[in-house]
Amino acid sequence: MSKTVMNPEERRRELLACAMKLFAEEGYDNVSVRAVARAAGVAPGLAYHYFDSKEKMFAEAIEDYARRCAESICELLDDNNLSLDEKLEQALELGASDDYPHAAYFHAEGHGALHDRLSLAMCEAVRPHLRAALEDDAASRGATAPDADELAAIMTYGAVGLASGPGLPDEAAIKAARRYLCALLAEFRSAGTVD
Predict the structure, then answer these.
(1) Do residues 181 and 159 make contact, with C-beta atoms less than 8 angstroms apart?
(2) Of the four, 17, 141, 144, 152, which is 20 to 30 A from 58 by CA?
(3) Across 42-51, 117-126, 165-174, least confident range
(4) Closest by alpha carbon to 121, among 174, 176, 164?
(5) What does each C-alpha distance from 115 to 25, 59, 72, 76, 169 come to in angstroms?
(6) How far is residue 120's CA from residue 56's CA, in Å, rounded to a whole number?
């Protein structure tokens, strides 16, 4: 039987995806680095080469999963064919959907800390893209955006806070997030200094 030689970064991503799947299906306590290696079809030593402990593997799996979940929002925020208002509206809709792999695991009762950890990691992935979208919007109006990073943080973390939690997101939370994001955006636009 011949072995598949894979680019190290590709192999790492494959192990992380496999780890996330196992953690979501079987729970953290029931998964080992060896089990992930077995499921991925690699030797345990190779898995330990990338991750020296289950804790490190889990932390990196969460970070990788958050980046993958945030990809569509980041791509949307980077789309130069949409206005900032359109980007925010569509990003809010995408973020509020439960159409993510393993969503049931992160929303399960007793997994609040894991959900919060995932939400924070997603915010960190989205924030620089939102900052860039805010800066682009200001530049298109001939204005500066000195507080774009701070506003991106407030908008990102605030929207997640309004849309996360037991029974959320619901339509009222989405409506509130939309209203407050619009108010923040209006303030940002009126405060921008014209060049």
Answers:
(1) yes
(2) 152
(3) 165-174
(4) 164
(5) 15, 13, 19, 23, 13
(6) 17
Residue with tokens 């949307």: 76
| Residue 8 CB partners (closer than 8 Å, separation 6+) | none
pLDDT in tens, 62-82: 888 888 888 999 999 999 999
3-state secondary structure of 194: strand
Short-list 48, 5, 190, CA closest to 35:
48
- 70 and 125 Cβ atoms separated by less than 8 Å: yes
Other beta carbons within 10 angstroms of residue 157's beta carbon come to 16
Whole-angstrom distance, CA of residue 39 vs CA of residue 126:
31
The residue with tokens 């973390």 is 157
Considering only 65-79, 145-159, 168-182, which range has the smallest mean pLDDT? 168-182
183 band by pLDDT with thresholds 50, 70 and 90: very high
Distance (Å, whole) CA 111 – CA 105: 7
What CA–CA distance (Å, rounded) separates 70 from 86?
17
The candidate with the shortest Cα–Cα distance to 143, out of 190, 81, 80, 88, is 190
Cβ proximity of 26 and 34 under 8 Å: no
Res. 185 pLDDT band, cuts 50 70 90: very high
